[in-house]
Fold:
Amino acid sequence: MPRWFETRLSGPGDSQPEVGAGVIAKPRELVRVGLPRVLNLWSTHQFWIGLLTALGFDARRIEFSSDTSEEQGREHGKGRGTVDCCYPVKCISGHYGELLAREKRPIDLLLSPMIQTLPSFLGGHVQASLACPRVMAAPENIKAGFLKGGDAFAARHVRHVAPLVTLDEPDLAARQLHAALKEVVAGLTAAEVRRAVQVGLSELEAFNRQMRQASRRLLEDCAREGRPALLVLARPYHMDPGIGHEIEVDLQGHGVPVLWSQYLPLDEDLLQWMYGADIAAGRLKSPFDLSDVWPSSYSANTNEILWGAKFAARMPWVACAVRLSSYECGMDQPTYTPVQRIVEGSGTLFFSFQDLDSTKPAGSVKIRVETIAMYLRTRSRDIIAAKRAAAPPGCPL
Ligand code: SF4
Structure:
């Protein structure tokens, strides 16, 4: 049976609901939900799809905005800027504008979570798995740009919902999501949101597992064929072509297989081979212990970049690591030196593209990509041999 939304009733002393507020008067499965494909949505998208479908929304009516692009910003974000200075946050105006402007598939609900913490494979081994504060605050910040000079959401009959979500605490996340979504989704119960959060987290975990298995297969191929792989050390949203400028795609075009630090294999046999001696000697508490290189381990994405740097240093077939970071990223700046030292200290090639923004320096990126490809062609064999000689025996790959 379809679950129908109710329109809020007005009564004596109760004012008429504003346009753009109140529950949505449509069956749940007909509601079109827009999600801006930005920031940590890049690493949690499966959670949101799992959550919404478990709540009865139709997966075919879940709309993600397009990749970030200059055209998107120009056409849909112009005049909507707010105060944030870091590039990935600024770009969100274009995503909001694009979702609001959709004529053919108009959205009813713009769901833009303020993700406070993230489920991370390093959870329990680090101090915390917080999102960057700018990531967390971005939805409210960007929303302000669509309220100046009139409510752009109300004008399109779109509800904007931006719940604070503590994604590494499922019970709390369920309470936060229920409190926010019940304002626009009629009849939504706490129990169904609790169940839907579990479904979302399971689907996210299954997706991550699949990606990690693919990374392991890639490393097995490299080990069998004596070929180098390249590891990208970046935030999840550097996968967005408009944020990361597809540098890793250009590198892959030179025949180098590419791994991302978010999806490295975590299999017990591999991690024991890589870190077992350090654990036995008491230098590390576990393969996920970062205290030897990064004691202030509060930020999920930063922790994972540091862990990826350690992985690059110890994995013989990762012959090169490429670091990406965005313009005005205050979170990344303190990590530049430690990451470079960890990688280079193992003899692994290290290249860094910092302060990436909209002024895509196509010419200089192309030259640097060719330089990296040349180094990999000429140096990989020796790098792999030296790293294998330094690694423990019995590699499971
Ligand atoms: S991590 Fe850096 S680039 Fe990303 S939102 Fe935070 S400050 Fe901006």
Summary: The chain has two domains: 28-205, 227-390. The domain at 227-390 is CATH 3.40.50.11900 (Rossmann fold). Strands lie at 33-35, 62-64, 109-111, 114-117, 159-161, 164-166, 229-233, 258-260, 318-326, 349-356.
